[in-house]
Specification:
By secondary structure, the protein is mainly alpha-helical. The protein has a single domain (about 25-159), classed as LysM domain (Membrane-bound Lytic Murein Transglycosylase D, Chain A, Roll), CATH 3.10.350. About 40% of the residues lie in helices and about 5% in strands. The chain is built from five helices and two strands. It has helices spanning about 1-25, 50-65, 85-90, 100-105, 130-140; strands spanning about 75, 120-125. A two-stranded antiparallel sheet has the order 1-2. The longest helix is centred in the N-terminal third of the chain and has 22 residues, at about 1-25. The termini are far apart. About 20% of the residues are buried.
Length: about 160
């Protein structure tokens, strides 16, 4: 009789855990985000004049090909299954999940609980107005490992 009671408790716990994972808001990462503002790289016109100029143009073109501009989002519309962590991790947002408190801070009027966001909500993505100390504090508060500096490639909204 004791075995049946213990096994039924274990089964109940496992079923509850499975339901929590099933209905969790951050269970899946969506495939794409909405890009609203885009930046473009201007292409230099190709002019053939002298061999020296041609070499310089080839250098300029190779440098321009090497530079990859990532479109920058000014706001984000929440899709089903997203959380602030995923949104901050997108390349066109911050490319750093530990910067989600910046999105929360900028949209406190639309977010009551940072763990509960809903599809269709529109959040502005701050692009300026923060000091490096404020960003480090936000990353520290989000549980980032030391040092609390954003990783290479992060799009930091520093003045």
């Amino acid at each position: 009789m004791k075995r049946n009671t213990v096994s039924s408790i274990i089964v109940t716990i496992l079923v509850c855990f499975g339901l929590v994972l099933l209905f969790s808001g951050c269970a899946k990462k969506p495939a794409e985000t909405v890009v609203v503002e885009e930046t473009a790289v201007a292409q230099a016109p190709v002019v053939v004049a002298e061999p020296e100029v041609e070499e310089e143009l080839e250098e300029v073109e190779s440098v321009m090909e090497a530079v990859e501009e990532i479109p920058v989002a000014g706001y984000h519309v929440v899709k089903k299954g997203e959380c602030l962590w995923w949104i901050a991790e997108y390349e066109d947002v911050y490319n750093d999940p530990f910067m989600w408190p910046l999105i929360y801070d900028a949209n406190k009027d639309n977010i009551r609980n940072p763990n509960l966001i809903y599809p269709g909500q529109e959040f502005s993505i701050p692009r300026a107005g923060y000091s490096l100390d404020e960003i480090q504090d936000a990353r520290r508060g989000a549980g980032a490992p030391r040092p609390y500096t954003p990783p290479e490639g992060a799009q930091v909204p520093v003045d």
